């Protein structure tokens, strides 16, 4: 059955794009907006998927990424295809959507059989972890170790005291030969006694420790076996995934990632964009424009807003799409354009050891992989002797405002210590894309990089670094909130994530193209700083109005 969908909306007067969408940073074309709205209306009214996506419900279901691909068929008719990332309730095949690249959930798939084996291993590991004998042994060994530790500490104190007494005796000017021999013998005796004491307790509790180690080794071996089987299963699955491009060149998932010396993450190949392009190439449909949007409630880690458009991810999709889009003329990659080329750095203060500058938005603090223009490179040209010490801290490329610059090694060390000790006070001004109900508060959400979609950050209570922000509302108008942020820590994208995340203020900063919606710029400005001067040791304060 064809998945080609005719537009319900009259699109005859809409001009087609001259080039295909650059999928990692784009403004959705009007045609993809219409296709998305039609798909969203279907999602609201159809029961085919039998999924609430967490919209207006209290269940645990969350949203999903959907995609639309505007295409032209052999009859020169313009329509679109639709897809979703992953699967929905362990199903892959629905009338409205293109099929997966490889259906691992089909009855004939090896995945189900092999996955059952992995589940059996997991159950066996869980049973061992919860085994009553194992838990009792863990408790016994723990108590034994505590007992031994206390005894050892007591004996060490006794031996230390005896050693001190021998030292005091040795310091006396007149010592007979026999007394010297006696003190030496006492020292040997104490060392021998201590070693024997440790051995005694090791032997005393060795049986329980050996029994515990037997359990631990069984669990370790089973976990290693599960890991090996899981890796083999993933490789076996990835071998089934083959992707075409417009030249009909086929390439397997493993080859795509191996050629880049990368390892494909779990779930790679099941995102919406590769599914859409694969179906188009298989069915001689010419891709015109692409867009992906989030539908439903967000999870607790990544920032996702209902109906917002998002680019394809860098970790899973970029290697695949680099192959699939080979041979197609794409829109310009705005991520490699230097948008700050004509913007100047303003010097607010300068003396023999430091600078206070106003960094314009879109200027990098340090050189990037592609764009080399930055605060560092510009100031290095002006202060070549200070090149190793210039950058004390950083601002995001899209953030404007106050930055401290060191001109000497001592100044750099002195200022950096203040940042490390959190004695430097900083305040930011931001405009949020919505109304905040409370007047002030504090956000504590640990952050780490999203390994599958760099440079984005996500909230992670297991591996994230502590991140704390204080805030207060300044003014509200036109459904926007002007707010003051005081970051207590300085994590990457901290203010942007704490603003946009549903466990933070749940309202993105205006113009945040990573966690909200694009605008003329990111409305975030480093407006105030207070620090101790490296030479005078006096408090220095600087304020700088934003230009939003």
Defining key terms:
single chain, 548 residues, alpha+beta, 3 domains, 9-stranded mixed β-sheet
Folded structure, characterized:
The chain is globular. The mean pLDDT is 91. The protein is 35% helix and 18% strand. The chain contains eleven helices and 17 strands. It has helices at residues 30-45, 110-129, 132-170, 177-204, 206-240, 253-259, 272-282, 317-324, 375-382, 409-420, 494-500, and strands at 5-6, 64-72, 78-84, 242-243, 251-252, 286-295, 346-350, 354-359, 400-406, 425-432, 440-444, 447-449, 457-459, 468-477, 480-487, 524-532, 539-543. It is an alpha+beta fold and 548 residues long. It starts with a strand and ends in a 5-residue tail after the last strand. The strands form four sheets. Strands 7, 8, 9, 10, 11, 14, 15, 16 and 17 form a nine-stranded mixed beta sheet that branches. The longest helix has 39 residues, at 132-170. It folds into three domains: 5-102 and 241-334, no CATH class; 109-239, no CATH class; 337-543, 2-Layer Sandwich (Pseudouridine synthase). Helix 7 packs parallel to helix 8.
């Amino acid at each position: 059955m064809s998945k080609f969908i005719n537009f319900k909306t009259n699109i005859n007067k809409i001009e087609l794009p001259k080039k295909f969408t650059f999928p990692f940073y784009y403004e959705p074309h009007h045609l993809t907006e219409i296709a998305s709205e039609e798909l969203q209306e279907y999602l609201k009214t159809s029961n085919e998927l039998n999924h609430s996506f967490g919209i207006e419900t209290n269940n645990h279901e969350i949203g999903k990424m959907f995609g639309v691909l505007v295409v032209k068929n052999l009859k020169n008719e313009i329509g679109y295809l639709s897809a979703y990332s992953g699967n929905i309730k362990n199903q892959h095949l629905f009338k409205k959507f293109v099929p997966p690249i490889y259906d691992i959930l089909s009855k004939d798939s090896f995945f189900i059989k092999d996955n059952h084996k992995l589940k059996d291993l997991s159950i066996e590991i869980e049973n061992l972890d919860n085994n009553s004998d194992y838990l009792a042994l863990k408790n016994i060994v723990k108590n034994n170790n505590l007992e031994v530790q206390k005894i050892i500490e007591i004996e060490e104190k006794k031996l230390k005291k005896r050693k001190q007494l021998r030292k005091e005796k040795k310091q006396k000017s007149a010592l007979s030969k026999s007394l010297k021999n006696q003190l030496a013998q006492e020292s040997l005796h104490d060392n021998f006694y201590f070693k024997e004491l440790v051995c005694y307790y090791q032997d005393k509790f060795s049986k329980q420790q050996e029994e515990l180690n037997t359990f631990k080794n069984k669990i370790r071996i089973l976990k290693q076996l599960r890991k090996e089987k899981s890796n083999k299963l993933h490789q076996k699955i990835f071998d089934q995934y083959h992707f075409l491009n417009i030249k009909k060149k086929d390439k397997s998932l493993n080859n795509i990632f191996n050629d880049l010396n990368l390892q494909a993450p779990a779930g790679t190949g099941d995102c919406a964009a590769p599914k859409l392009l694969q179906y188009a190439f298989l069915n001689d449909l010419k891709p015109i424009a692409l867009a992906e949007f989030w539908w439903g409630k967000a999870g607790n880690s990544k920032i996702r807003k209902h109906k917002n458009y998002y680019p394809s991810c860098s970790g899973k999709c970029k290697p695949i799409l680099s192959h699939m889009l080979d041979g197609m003329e794409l829109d310009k990659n705005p991520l490699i354009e230097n948008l700050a080329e004509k913007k100047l750095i303003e010097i607010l203060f300068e003396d023999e050891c430091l600078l206070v500058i106003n960094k314009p938005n879109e200027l990098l603090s340090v050189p990037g992989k592609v764009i080399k223009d930055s605060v560092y490179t510009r100031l290095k040209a002006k202060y070549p002797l200070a090149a190793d010490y210039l950058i004390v801290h950083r601002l995001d490329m899209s953030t404007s405002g106050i930055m401290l610059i060191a001109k000497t090694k001592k100044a750099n060390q002195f200022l950096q210590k203040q940042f490390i000790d959190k004695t430097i006070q900083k305040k930011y001004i931001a405009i949020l894309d919505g109304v905040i109900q409370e007047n002030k508060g504090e956000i504590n959400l640990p952050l780490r990089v999203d390994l599958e979609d760099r440079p984005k950050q996500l909230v992670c209570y297991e591996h994230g670094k502590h991140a704390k922000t204080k805030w207060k509302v300044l003014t509200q108008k036109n459904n926007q909130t002007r707010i003051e942020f005081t970051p207590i820590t300085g994590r990457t994208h901290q203010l942007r994530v704490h603003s946009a995340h549903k466990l933070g203020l749940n309202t993105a900063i205006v113009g945040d193209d990573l966690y909200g919606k694009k605008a003329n710029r990111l409305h975030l400005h480093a407006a105030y700083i207070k620090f101790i001067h490296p030479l005078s040791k006096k408090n220095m304060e600087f304020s700088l109005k934003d230009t939003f």
